[in-house]
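Recall the central idea of this unit: under ordinary conditions, the amino acid sequence of a chain determines the structure it adopts. In this exercise we apply that idea directly, starting from the sequence alone.
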Amino acid sequence: MDASVRGVPIRLTKVTVIVLLLSGGAVAYSGYDYVQQSEAIDNAVAVNATVTEADVERIDVRRGTDYAADVEFTYQYEGTNYTGDRIYPSRFSPNYGTESEAEAAIEPYETNETVTAYVDPSEPSEGFLEPRRTTAPLVFSGLGAVIFLFSTLNAVGARTPGQNTGIRPASEVEPTRYETLFGLARDRVCYLSTRLMMGGIGVFALALLGIFGVILATEEQNVTVSLTDPFAAVPLAGAVGILAFLIGLLLYLLWSFTEYRRLRERLPDPRPPSPFRRPTRLATILTTNDGLDAYGTRVKKTGFALVVLAFCLGVILNVLFF
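Accordingly, the structure predicted from this sequence is:
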């Protein structure tokens, strides 16, 4: 369905509508779940519970392996027996990046031991063990919000940005800006950025293999690694690889954005609005596979690098603070 609001074109396909409904519903549901945790904690009544199971579950995901803390317990409230499996008062259970973090989460709960559980009288079947909120719903809500926002931006605005822009040959219009970057030739900066990214990925991959080898070699032993041990060099190498990749990505993003600015100088007047000031155009270009000219292709590569950098920073912030 094609429409127009104050001259702005809008295209809604069946897929777009479904994605908007699902992602919007995910944001609303997870947002409500996060807020209702406070109400459940405020209304909670403490009861005795018996732990029937406490274990760490390994979850294979695309980016590697996550771990979940599984705790099952039984309790009685007003004469009725219930079975619960929530550590926090949320329908979303947090995953952990390492097995040791998941083990720390279930450490207070030994099988067959009596612990304190908390019950909201309005929902006695939804008992939980920790009277504090988890940020797990926010992660799900954030993902849904990103999908909703991107789908909305893609549906609004011109349908062919970055195509047939009439970009003139460099022989006719010689760009005057950004001849060098940091005092280096532009090609040199591009070369260094790609090598840093490739090298960082390679070092990180080798570090993962090294960590896997260390785990296999010490599987039957309780080993404590200090900073002076050779084993400590493995995770350190992984950190160096990540840092090299991020620096390379940042350099490439800077080079690519200035290259985009140089290409804009070659566009005939009147120039189209900048996709980096009109997110609707950027979203459409990022989802376009065919028909982009040199200008549109550069916008797409720059936007993709920006998305990757934002994703990496989001992952780092999630690991450090959530």
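The two ends are 41 Å apart (CA to CA).
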